Amino acid sequence: MAFPWWRDAIVYEIYVRSFADASGDGVGDLAGVRSRLGYLAGLGVDAIWLTPFYPSPMADGGYDVADYRGVDPLFGDLADFDALVSDAHERGLRVIVDIVPNHSSAEHPWFRRALDAPPGSPERDRYLFATGSGDAPPNNWRSTFGGPAWSRLPGGEWYLHLFAPEQPDFNWRDPDVPAEFLDVLRFWLDRGVDGFRIDVANGLFKAAGLPDAPPDEQGFKAESPIWGRPEVHEVYREWRKVLDSYRGDRVAVGEVWTDSVTDLARYVRPDELHQTFNFPWLLAPWSATALRKVIDDTLRIVPAPTWVLSNHDVVRHRTRYDETDPGAGLPRARAAMLTTLALPGSAYLYQGDELGLPEILDLPDEVRQDPVFTRTGGEIKGRDGCRVPLPWSGTTEPYGFAPEGVRPWLPQPAEWAELSVRRQEGDPGSTLEFHRAAIALRRELRGSLPTEIIWLDAPADVLMFTRGPLTCVLNCGDRAVPLPPHHSLLIASGPLPGEALPPDTAAWLSPPPPH
Ligand code: GLC
Question: CB of 313 closer than 6 A to ligand 1?
């Protein structure tokens, strides 16, 4: 049987606020996405994932949802959404939307009603309200964005927010909450979405009684009083039934930050989620040993694997690789992408990866919008640097992101001029054309690639594996290595002088025909 589409898909993450602004208010929108579908189809991706576009006060860029069934006027309206889905489908692109079940916005009608209702009321039971002791919060939990995870109300009760105070956590033990989300899933499935990206998928349930967490268990863990409670799996079993009741292969991919690969697999049982993001891949340092370990662990333990190098929450991979070895970021980013695309499973690309965009590290403090920045008193700069609006064309702001003369919501740097889509298009040495070629080749080979890889002997600092007609070699070392004899070159991530593979370069080869 042929695989369902998502098993080896290339999914392109669109951070809607920063992709393309059609309305001219400096913020990306759904009509902007729709106007660029031709570009995405040309890039060769199979699906797009849209970050939240729902009505929201934008305390966390839209991950604070006030209405799960609408479109924020900033991004358009439901008609724009429907038009986008329909145009995407016409071009053969699937559409995945983001669902945020761990918390809502403090402006969600349920939370507003809860605030108006007395302690112990059914309205308050949908969230996690508790009494503290004296002036101390109910427990020692910390917010992922810095500071305590509790805020106090004038009446004396506290409410839990694992993220910003504007993002109160739902109480998943209240039956209204699971029922509401099943209905929200159906709402978007009925509108034709092909799947969901589940925000903070290992959150939702908290240990009964809300006990203190040991100091080393405040961060993301496979299991702690805060994360990875066993009850969450039952939720995804219910969700899976809903997804399976629709025609077409609808997919659910979970965002699970955890310290264990086994835990990633736990969400991907046959009756649960289809996939989880493979963050160990993006966390791995530039080392053949480290990368090989992630590949081995993933392929051994995680069914339906995925590969992620960047997203809207992390420093862009070009800059991560640059940090340890200045100047090596771009060649390594290209080599990492070629390796990613050679692996069995799906690849999740983040907008701008294909342009080789760096993280913008020197945004002025006053333009930063990430709550992480304010919650840590500026100690942690936050995630705005990977969210700078894309450069499409032109030599000055807004670089085609918005109509001429419009100021984008985050300033774009002068280096965008050299990195724009227009600038790179048609230049065979460009990062964009490299991505297009690699994706096209992967599509061509798709039907003939087995799901296993076979490791081949290689020098230290080099990875080499085959998948049927494809051999992938990655050189993480600091000297060139000879390529295996008699192979023919399919594509390389950078220039290949002679028969050798330079440092920070990957290549796809086709093995010699058997004789
Ligand atoms: C996820 C999102 C991130 C958001 C957080 C809280 O990690 O990817 O952007 O801030 O959840 O919703």
Answer: yes
